[in-house]
Amino acid sequence: MKEISRRKFIGSVSALTMLTAMPGFTQTKPTNKALKLAESYRGELLTLLTELVHVQSLSGESAANAQAVVKSYLSKLPYRIEESKDRPSSYANHPEFMPPDPAGDGPFVNLVGWPQKSKGKQFAMFAHIDTESVYDNWQTDPFEAKLVGNKLYGLGTADDKAGVAAMLVAARAMEKMGAPLPVVMSLHGKGGGCRGSLPVFDRISKVNPSLGAVLYVHPAETGRGLEDIKNSVQGIADLQLIVTGWRGPQMEIGSIDSADWGAGGNAVDVCWKLISHLRESVFKEVMVNIGIMNGATVLVLLLIKRH
């Protein structure tokens, strides 16, 4: 049988092709209907994510207890659940093998959910269940999900138990809509991938190499993190205006306050004029929000979002 690499397996189609291959997705921009549907599952998503965060599954651990939470949720949906206990040493001779970091041979628990009924070309979603270690300077309990404002704190809330929860809740939403279900995979992904993504992808490539698309449910890994989520996903752009005011010539030697006010420049007024100009021109079709004004030298942070 022809070998297929993990990179080729998950990157065989472009992002646009991947989206259009998914039933119900014909454009990259989410519709109001889709956003409203997602919002209706917010409570369920937070409940599941809270449960996952509460169960420790650090990189290098088996994650058996955390995967039990995934399995329990998935068992209520029309899926055939395939559980494996994988050891990195079994893939030591694989061309894509990387020694696990931290070292250890497990076994490591991985889950794949196969839709009980499927028609035509399938697509898949995967996320990793293992998290970073608990480092210093946590100001909240890392194993308790805590919502502060619009930010959720807890180990794995971003990397990547939120991805696992989002994947599972998305499957539930699709099942309720009567849409074709994706293959879902909750894997070990850290430390080189030999604990989970390598063995699972290797097996799937031999059993079902014709998946139409594979979506990695994970925050952006560009080094910009939440900035990419805000800018690319929510359509928000940050614009910073820095304007320094100026004084007119002194009318009295040694007294800067003697300058004529009218001969100087007011940084606040200049900023407002620039904002007004932008609103009437390049940002005419977008919503502009002034986030921060910092006086003296005036710093104006604009959050610009498309309607």
Describe it for me?
- With 307 residues, this protein is an alpha+beta fold.
- Mean pLDDT is 81; it is low at 9-27.
- The protein is elongated.
- It has a 5-stranded mixed β-sheet with strand order 1-2-6-3-7, with helices on both faces.
- The chain contains 9 helices and 10 strands.
- It has 2 domains: 6-219, Zn peptidases (Aminopeptidase), CATH 3.40.630; 230-306, no CATH class.
Strand order of the largest sheet: 1-2-6-3-7
Taking all Cα atoms into account, the compactness measure Rg is 26 Å
**Strand percent estimate:** 15-25%
The CATH class of the largest domain turns out to be Alpha Beta
Count of alpha and pi helical runs: 9
**Integer count of domains:** 2
Give the CA-CA distance, first to last residue.
Answer: 51 Å
CATH superfamily of the largest domain: Zn peptidases
Structural class: alpha+beta
Order of helices and strands: HHHHHEEEEEHEHEHEHEE
User: What is the subunit arrangement here?
Assistant: single chain
Portion of residues within helices: 25-40%
CATH topology of the largest domain: Aminopeptidase
Instruction: Point out poorly predicted stretches.
Output: 9-27
CATH architecture of the largest domain: 3-Layer(aba) Sandwich
Global shape: elongated
The whole-number mean of residue pLDDT values reads 81
Major beta sheet summary: 5 strands, mixed
* Count of individual beta strands: 10
